[in-house]
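Exercise 3.2. Students should predict the tertiary structure of the chain below and write it as structure tokens, then compare their answer with the key that follows.

Predict this chain's 3D structure.
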Amino acid sequence: MKLPVRIILVLLCAAIIFALPFVISSPNMLNDIKLELMNDDEDEIDFGRILFSSAAAEDELEEETLVDGEFASHPEWALPLDFTPGQEPKADQYAENGYEDESIRVKMEHQEMDDGTKMHVAYVQIADPSQFRTGVANPEKLGSSRTSTVSALAKKYNAVIAINGDNYVDAPKKTTFEYRMTQKIRSKTNNLKDILIIDDQGDFHLFPRSKGVKEFPNELKKMNRKLVNAFTFGPALVIDGEVAELDDEYGYNPHGREPRTAIGQIGPLSYVFVIIEAKDRSGSSGFSHAKLAEFMKEIGCLQAFNLDGGNSAEMVFGEQVIKGMPGGDERSLSDIIYFASAEP
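Answer key:
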């Protein structure tokens, strides 16, 4: 071998030996890699890992990205399933048509028909099912006849957005199936009414004519779930993505054009609140049950349910109060359905 070549090889070996302390992060690293290769000789050798420290390798890893519309998981933020208020909304997070923090996203849309009917739709995405909540006027005595306005209840429970519930104190026969935040108010059924049950994963379950409701709590236990809220009003509007079969004789003026309130589930932890606003109660504006069902399907509901409407129809979003019947005072009711922030 010629002398210049020998000199070059000697210099190259010296350079490699000199560089080893800088490129190997630990004296035990080579032994660790040797053992790993012996235990898994079918894997491709990662020479980049041998030559560079683990800290440098971590810099090359891609950051985990969320699916569009989802939130980062914060299990420690989960709210208790009782009548504890949610975290107080941040006033500076409200916009005219939206609210967003690290646990909830609300987008408001407003439409108007030629006859003056207005559709107010709130699309809501939450991070945890505990953010889907109900509030009552008298949580110490659920069977009480005490009532309050939607605005007052929304403030009391720190609601980001709230709508009226089914006003269960206004059911004279008391034959309803009502739960609020896991607490039973009544467990009777009425085979003339539809029932909505919401479980602890935030999923909707609809029971036309109350069929199957009595057995359902046991079914939930088998699924390792529990009943959180239940409402007797209706009718069920959309079931499994299809317009429900509507009863011509169902209560609450099924064919009349009225102010309405409805709630729907679009997907996992994704929902809509809807208020249909009428100019008056003359029947010249507003929605029938059939029109409301079609509308709920059109906006993407997999499950949807009609709640107390008429003068009760109301949505509170920050400082905005949207009523199904504009003008006049707010009606005093027994309960609200609301979404809360879970961000501390």
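Discussion points: Helices lie at 3-23, 29-39, 47-51, 54-59, 150-156, 216-222, 289-298. The longest helix spans residues 3-23.
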